[in-house]
Amino acid sequence: MHLLVGNPTAQSGRNAERISRVRELLDIHGLTHELMATQPGGLTITAVTEAVRTGRYSTIVAMGGDGTFREVGAGILDSGVSVVMGMLPTGTANDQGRSFGMSAAPEALDRNVVTLAERNMVPLDAGKLIAPVQAGGPATTTWFFDSAGWGMSARVLRWRNEDRNVVGQVPVLRELYRDKFVYAGAVLQAFLASYVQQQDFDCEVETPDGAGGVTRTRLEGITDLIVKNTRYYAGAWVFDETASSEDGLLELVPLRGRNELIARALLAHEQVPLYTEEMREAGMDLSGILRAPWFNLRFVERDVRVEAQVDGDEHPGGTAWRVEVVRHALRLIVPAARSEG
Fold first, then answer.
1. Which of 55, 75, 161, 235 is a Cys-bridge partner for 49, taking CB atoms 3.0 to 4.6 Å apart?
2. Does domain 2-119 fall into CATH 3.40.50.10330?
3. Which residue ranges does the chain devote to CATH 2.60.200.40?
């Protein structure tokens, strides 16, 4: 039995039509299933956990964007029960789907359901974001599968969500200014704001040295810090061509200011590989990417609080974190002809 987890109210209700089409396709391919609607406020994770623990389902399918993928994956891991995870991408960035060759376009639904029926599986690492004990309370743990980030990327998400809430109140604008347009507007807002006040911070990083000890690195004057698990970022950028979501390692990507943001965009964008030595000579150097099974991060904030995001959703900020990988945490259904990369 499959459990299909999706949001019928997404995209102004249009996602309900997609869900109906998917259910028809699941029936055609003999995949018995039940539907669970996503719930607000992170309650989807608890609902998935409880559903998995009933023992009724062999496969849990996330239909939506990277945020829905995270909630379903976290629910499975919190259950402590070994079940298979599938995905039917419909999100804007679609980092998870693109990393494994799956499109989020409406016309790809048929092919994606066939992928579920073919049941080709690969292991998927999970990231674990741990905030230390504060004020005598317990440490908090958050699962992620795509990325965690601090700085400009998190600020962009907050502005995107604020814009989306405002635009959502105006019917005409709601139809014109949505999905990637909303995100692009937030990116532009952040980029322009950086010319007025470049909000940078320092980060002290600890990584294992391979001999039982710790290597300490101080990153100074960074405007964005990203921890990646899967290949794609923001739907089109690949920071590390050698990275894999099943190698037991995470990638730590620092960005320093507008120049490096531009350089990374040009170098890492899958369709615009234009970074040249001339750019390097002009001062557009790239910071090194760190790869490790865990990182201890301590932020040294300056004039502003360092905001955080997890898999495209806002996350409470903080100044100290541990980020670690759980290797092969999930079994994920992907196209038989495509693996990551």
1. 75
2. yes
3. 131-327
d(CA 335, CA 112): 8
Cα distances (Å, whole numbers) of residue 52 to 70, 209, 258: 15, 38, 45
Name the nearest CA neighbour of 247 among 322, 324, 327.
Answer: 327
Residues of the chain with CATH 3.40.50.10330: 2-119
Q: What is the pLDDT of residues 37-63, one digit of tens each?
A: 999 888 999 999 999 999 999 999 999
Contacts of 315 (CB under 8 A, 6+ apart): 129, 142, 148, 154, 308, 309
Neighbours of 138 (CB within 10 A): 8
| Cβ neighbours, 10 Å, residue 245 | 28
Measured between alpha carbons, how far is 232 from 243 in angstroms, rounded to an integer? 10
Q: Looking at mean pLDDT, say which of 63-72, 94-103, 129-138, 331-340 comes out highest.
A: 63-72
Helix axes 180-196, 152-167, angle to 10 degrees: 130
CATH number of 131-327: 2.60.200.40
